[in-house]
Design a protein that fits this description.
Shape: globular
Number of strands: 18
Largest sheet: 5 strands, mixed
Number of helices: 12
CATH class of the largest domain: Alpha Beta
Distance between the termini: 42 Å
Helix content: 25-40%
Strand order of the largest sheet: 2-6-4-5-7
Order of helices and strands: EEHEEEHEHEHEHEEEEHEEEHHEHEHEHH
CATH architecture of the largest domain: 3-Layer(aba) Sandwich
CATH superfamily of the largest domain: Nucleoside phosphorylase domain
């Protein structure tokens, strides 16, 4: 180590592991450990800003949950989460237990019930990066490298890519260095990284996100969502309590004022909230598979119960009309952004619970049933590509490929969202609306598009919301079924 780097280490007073058979008490201990660790880092960081470089390195650690199971006794085979499949020790680091409190209580309680054992709560050996420790503190900001007269990483821990990755969900990590297996799909650093990215990309705090997420690719849906939200806030029976717009602007009454945001974020996000978190979040991801991957990469750490794509697509069949709906039951993945994480040979299956909820939602909103419903909705393969101007290429190749896949629609986001849902074990689905038919001379021209938006967007959004409300009424174990779980799964959802 160079002479100018400190060799001493300042850490919070050491504490041991504690056993808990009560999930509420276990999460309270996690909260205490996390608060003490981040307060320690924030205090020393402020001292450094005021007094300069300290004589010792400063470090605090994430809390962890540790579970040890010694029996091969099987639990209820119908369960897809809340248990481990074999004896051993399982661990996970935890961040922001305040934000994830309900989730943590639920998951820990299932482990205690299903295995009849206690969980151990204590500090881990994973340092908390100072950037994440002070992220929620408006009075503290981390200066850019080079502003201070010494390197920040000489004194404090900074984000570490060895613990900030998707190795667990991608099936690349089944054991930690101490021999324990992962208990949860994401490490604390991976979660912290995404929480910071979400605030940046969406301009809303992660605490506002609801358990049901709609993705769209047009601002028109945002306008309709606000209209719907204001009507819901006017109806006490709706169950919705607040609406949050860009910049964390929150209203609780239908006439609440939302000031136009001057510098829109990359992915404007809006939240129609319920007190239990079972409301609906709408994310305008814009156009393209890269945006779709970015959004879902980060929202996945919040462990939503479902996400759906409700956007526009090109209709590929002459029998379709502008404004028709397409319910995806398969995906042709030509987006390429997930090829390194999820090989293209991995099938992305349609999920029955999602499909039924979407189809029934279309029937609810349109008042059409059975064979009549087929007049406005096709079920089939949706192709997702990464080239917006694919029509300009030699048509012999693309059209043949689309025909061979039996595709009925084409867009730039749906397969990416579905594939990342599959990868992150988040139930997914797609209901698109035909806005043009490029193979049949009906291009998306300004006049045509305006009329389409005027008549269809409101109905399409209401269908997406209605589908989410149907999914909300399902038991959690039904929507999070075994279909999305692999051979060696984490116990946490």
């Amino acid at each position: 180590m160079p002479d100018d780097q400190p060799t001493a280490m300042q850490c919070p007073a050491p504490v041991g592991q504690e056993s808990f058979t009560d999930a509420e008490a276990a999460v309270a201990r996690l909260q205490q450990l996390y608060s003490e660790a981040t307060a320690f880092l924030a205090r020393h960081f402020n001292d450094t800003l005021v007094h300069g470089r300290p004589d010792a390195r400063v470090r605090a650690f994430y809390p962890e949950i540790r579970l040890t199971v010694n029996s091969f006794d099987k639990v209820d085979s119908r369960l897809s989460f809340g248990h481990v499949s074999s004896p051993g020790t399982y661990t996970t680091t935890i961040t922001r237990p305040d934000l994830f409190r309900n989730y943590l209580v639920q998951q820990i309680e299932l482990l205690i019930q299903n295995h009849g054992v206690s969980v151990e709560i204590g500090p881990s050996d994973t340092p908390i990066p100072v950037h994440f420790a002070v992220a929620g503190n408006s009075e503290v900001s981390v200066p850019q490298e080079g502003v201070m007269d010494f390197s920040l990483r000489d004194i404090f821990d900074v984000p570490d890519l060895t613990t900030t990755n998707d190795d667990i969900v991608n099936g690349m990590r089944t054991r930690y260095a101490d021999g324990s297996a992962p208990l949860a799909p994401f490490t604390a650093q991976r979660v912290d990284y995404s929480l910071a990215r979400l605030s940046h990309y969406t301009a809303t705090d992660p605490a506002h996100f609801q358990n049901h997420v709609l993705f769209t690719n047009y601002q028109f849906y945002v306008d309709e969502f606000e209209t719907y939200a204001r009507a819901a806030l006017a109806d006490p029976a709706s169950g919705y309590s607040a609406f949050v717009a860009t910049g964390n602007q929150e209203i609780t009454t239908p006439d609440g004022v939302i000031v136009p945001f001057t510098k829109m974020p990359q992915m404007p996000t809006y939240h129609l909230k319920r007190p239990d978190g079972e409301g609906i979040t709408l994310v305008n991801i814009g156009v393209g598979p890269s945006n779709a991957k970015t959004a879902t990469d980060h929202i996945a750490v919040l462990r939503p119960h479902a996400w759906l794509m409700v956007g526009h697509c090109a209709g590929l069949r002459n029998s379709q009309s502008l404004g028709d709906f397409v319910l995806a039951h398969a995906y042709l993945r030509d987006d390429h952004v997930l090829d390194d994480d999820l090989p293209v040979w991995v099938p992305i299956p349609a999920l029955a619970e999602i499909q039924i909820a979407l189809e029934r939602a279309v029937a609810d909103v349109t008042q059409l049933e059975g064979y009549e419903l087929k007049r406005i909705m096709r079920t089939g393969t949706v192709a997702t590509i990464d080239n917006r101007n694919w029509e300009l290429r030699d048509q012999s190749g693309p059209v043949r490929r689309l025909s061979q896949s039996r595709a009925v629609a084409l867009d730039m986001e749906s397969a990416t969202i579905a594939a990342n849902g599959f990868r992150f074990r988040v139930p997914y689905g797609t209901l698109l609306c035909v806005s043009d038919k490029p193979l049949h001379g009906e291009l998306k021209l300004p006049g045509m598009a305006s009329e389409f938006y005027k008549t269809q967007v409101s109905r399409h959004l209401k269908i997406g919301i209605r589908a989410m409300e149907r999914l909300r009424d399902m038991p959690l174990e039904r929507i999070h079924s075994r279909k999305l779980r692999s051979f060696e799964e984490t116990a946490f959802l």
